[in-house]
């Protein structure tokens, strides 16, 4: 496995692969890897001949400096995990490599970035689109894989790639969970024991929503059961509950006429967790 910290180094490697006709897959991450990330790597490997993973904690997608500073990191462990997974190259740039002094170009999906979770975290999806564009231009993959867990992010990326005519196939990967149902996240290690135990309420709320839907429940009744389930957990504060069309993320109401994306975010002490499920009509 090759490790690159510069754009030139990584580009040289990918160009050499291309000359042999290899198809290149890419998984962008912020590191502190878990099985969810590795499932995306396996998906990339099954769609491409070579796999690049980036590890970059992107400052422009964090609203608060404290959240950025507290983001967990463990480069040595990440590299061991990626090597064991058979990754071909890892790109670990410094902030100055991605954002050169004087950098001022932003990329924004103007509607998708500013609705739903984008209202809870202003500027977040602009930061995501801006860094993923830079990474795509550096790696120039044929295929890139993103988790469905960050459902709005996946839709932002799909729309950006479509609008900017980027020749990259975007593939979504299902959410990988802990044994009790909590969606794996690099942030989970920052939860206190009590909050970690309480956080299972997110997946329980989604299970309850699915149960309501299978008995013909409306969007309103799905929202009510999620609200009630989370309200019953005193350690959780619901900060976002979005029930939207699965692809364009417009609000839905009444009986389910199309797949419904349910996206929830909740605060446990100072940690914001998200979870999501697409419920079929
Ligand atoms: P992050 O390192 O949090 O930026 O995540 C990197 C990629 O991994 C994103 O595409 C995420 O959606 C995805 N991801 C994060 N957690 C999970 C999970 N539990 N299951 C599947 N994919 C995930």
TrEMBL record:
ATP binds at residues 30-37, 147-150, 176, 184-187. Its EC number is 6.3.2.1. InterPro entries: Cyt_trans-like (IPR004821), Pantoate_ligase (IPR003721), Pantoate_ligase_C (IPR042176), Rossmann-like_a/b/a_fold (IPR014729). Pathway: Cofactor biosynthesis; (R)-pantothenate biosynthesis; (R)-pantothenate from (R)-pantoate and beta-alanine: step 1/1. It is found in: Cytoplasm. It comes from the Bacteria. Keywords: ATP-binding, Cytoplasm, Ligase, Nucleotide-binding, Pantothenate biosynthesis. (R)-pantoate binds at residues 61, 153. It holds the Pfam family Pantoate_ligase. It catalyses: (R)-pantoate + beta-alanine + ATP = (R)-pantothenate + AMP + diphosphate + H(+). GO terms for cellular component: cytosol. Signal peptide: none annotated. The active site is at residue 37. GO terms for molecular function: ATP binding; pantoate-beta-alanine ligase activity. NCBIfam families: cyt_tran_rel, panC. Homodimer. Catalyzes the condensation of pantoate with beta-alanine in an ATP-dependent reaction via a pantoyl-adenylate intermediate. Belongs to the pantothenate synthetase family. The reaction proceeds by a bi uni uni bi ping pong mechanism. This is Pantothenate synthetase. It comes from Litorivita pollutaquae. The lineage of its organism: Bacteria, Pseudomonadati, Pseudomonadota, Alphaproteobacteria, Rhodobacterales.
